[in-house]
Amino acid sequence: MLGDEGGSLGSAEASSNFNEFSFSNGGPLTQDNEVGGPLRGTAGVRLGGPPGGPPGGPPGASSQSQTLPPPSQDLWFRPIEAKALAEDFLHIDHEIVPCRALVELRGLSYLSPTAREEYAKNLRPDVVTPGDTLQLLLFQARSLLQQQKVQLLFPAAFGPTVVDALQKDPLGVDLASHSLFYFELGEELCRLLPEHEWPHPNLQAILQQAKRQRRVGLAVGAFSRDRKILKRLTFEERDTVNAIENSRPFMGPFA
């Protein structure tokens, strides 16, 4: 069994304010990480409506409590954001993913560890320059990717350490410490990026196989009622366990 993966990040905390996350009021920040940095936040299944959270659906979840920076004064990104908000809503849209800037991005220095530090020391204006690494919510990253302003990167949770462990012992990997919606996010990133940019050969097939093997493990009772083991499961896997044992839906971090 694989315990804590190298670079694991701890489970995300629930929040009811999806509206707090946007370019215009400052998105959540993560600690200074290199390209392919860690992934935080929670996400979920497709629901209708904007990232404000659909009526009757589970509210969103944010990454661990952090201080939000003041809003940027630049307006160039608002049409891009508005287009993203008009599209069908995915809870994984609020997972944080690393990106690399391809062009100058005015007013977004707070989203790049390097740019934020240099701006605070008056070493550069409030601008992200090409090559800087940003930490963006997925729906923001997807919009800028479509505009060819950033290069989307896989979080470290999809690197060789975790993926190799999934191949060797899929039931033993603590996926919840990386993301409650690990498989959904991984499949979405594989869809958005060409295969030569994946961090592991055949990543999509590996994720699908590991997901099936973990489901089989749940069905045959490979996971006990031990709370420590249950905490390793993804949102969908916990839902499955609850349905099998209690015949009632599991609400996960949104309860």
UniProtKB/TrEMBL annotation:
Q: Which GO terms describe its biological process?
A: mitotic DNA replication initiation
Indicate where this protein is primarily found: nucleus
Q: Where are the transmembrane segments?
A: none
GO CC term, one of those recorded: GINS complex
Its annotated compartments are: Nucleus
Keywords carried by this UniProt record: DNA replication, Nucleus
Q: Where is the composition biased (Low complexity)?
A: 10-25
Give the matching SUPFAM superfamilies.
GINS helical bundle-like
Q: Which residues form the GINS subunit domain?
A: 162-245
Provide an example Pfam family for this protein. Answer: Sld5
Q: Which residues form the signal peptide?
A: none
Which stretches does the entry tag as region Disordered? 1-73
What's this protein's family per the entry? Belongs to the GINS3/PSF3 family.
The protein here is known as GINS subunit domain-containing protein
Instruction: Give the species.
Output: Eimeria tenella
